[in-house]
Specification:
The protein has 13 helices and no strands. It has 304 residues and is mostly helical. The chain has one domain. The protein is globular.
Length: 304
């Protein structure tokens, strides 16, 4: 029954929406590098267990090792550095809106690198999405309502995700999606380990385990990095990537609602209007797309 796949999709988007809020809670006691490192460790363990139970482990071909290294460098390493530090300067709602533009940029770079042609309405969607972001992040006077540093870091995350997507095209047809994410997370643990040991280890020891913040990291690992991906992969297997991908437009909507009730983020009429325009642009950018490389790209953008 299709209802199961659609239910799985909705819950995966809810989990990803909560990830922005869980990060804000975890960040009360722990620095971004600590949050990401522990999150990746837990997620790698969970996904490895999942692959072991389902007999999904597959060896990596020697020729593909460099691509996995580049993949992990883009995401989770650069992506989580940009997203995690960026979220320390902006609201969880704004963060989710900016991150939700990843599919739009993926479309642009897919055309640049793979010459995939899109309809005029798709390019119009790109422009509309940018207008929506500008509306959302500016106050009534037309000035930005948050730190420029936060914006730069979040768009670094977007750029890293697009780079990740371009590399993933080479691997998606050969390896199981869960295996790809598990390998990239394992490499990510190795990449983040020196940063954690140098910058955060002493502070973590001094801070200890703060129940509320640490539980949020566990929730990030279980639901955002593991559960959401498995649910999304399950839905894609039955519905196809394009049909499942459109549900990602629900993320900023869910995040805004949850952030309003849980962490007290303000949601003005201008914010709501900006979000509506962004979401409309994302829908337009995906109308009539061909089932080609970009479908694999879109699937990758939310996998970690």
């Amino acid at each position: 029954m299709k209802g199961r796949q659609y239910t799985a999709l909705v819950f995966s988007m809810i989990f990803w929406s909560f990830s922005f809020i869980w990060f804000k809670i975890a960040n009360k006691s722990y620095d971004p590098i600590t949050i990401v490192f522990i999150r990746l460790c837990i997620a790698t363990f969970l996904l490895s267990a999942f692959l072991w139970i389902t007999h999904g482990f597959k060896g990596v071909r020697k020729a593909d090792r460099k691509y996995f290294l580049l993949l992990a460098f883009f995401e989770p390493f650069l992506y989580f550095l940009g997203e995690s530090f960026g979220l320390t300067y902006v609201s969880s709602t704004l963060g989710s809106v900016i991150i939700s533009t990843i599919p739009v940029f993926a479309v642009i770079f897919a055309w640049i690198f793979y010459r995939e042609r899109l309809k005029l309405i798709n390019y119009a969607g790109v422009v509309v999405s940018f207008i929506g972001v500008i509306i959302f992040i500016t106050s009534g006077s037309g000035t930005t309502a948050m730190s420029l540093k936060g914006l730069v870091l979040l768009f670094l995350a977007v750029a890293a995700a697009v780079g990740y997507n371009m590399v993933l095209v080479r691997l998606a047809s050969v390896y199981n999606p869960v295996s790809i994410v598990n390998i990239q997370n394992a490499i990510g643990v190795i990449l983040f380990l020196p940063l954690f040991l140098i910058f955060d280890l002493k502070k973590v020891i001094a801070t200890g385990i703060i129940a509320e913040s640490f539980s949020s990291i566990v929730l990030l690992a279980i639901f955002a990095s593991s559960g959401a991906f498995v649910l999304f992969a399950y839905s894609v297997r039955h519905l196809g990537i394009s049909r499942a991908n459109i549900f990602s437009n629900l993320i900023p909507v869910f995040t805004a609602i949850f952030a309003f009730f849980i962490v007290g983020d303000k949601l003005t009429f201008r914010n709501a209007a900006g979000m509506a325009v962004v979401i409309a642009g994302l829908f337009l950018s995906q109308i009539g797309k061909k089932e080609a490389a970009v479908t694999d790209i879109d699937f990758a953008g939310r996998s970690a």
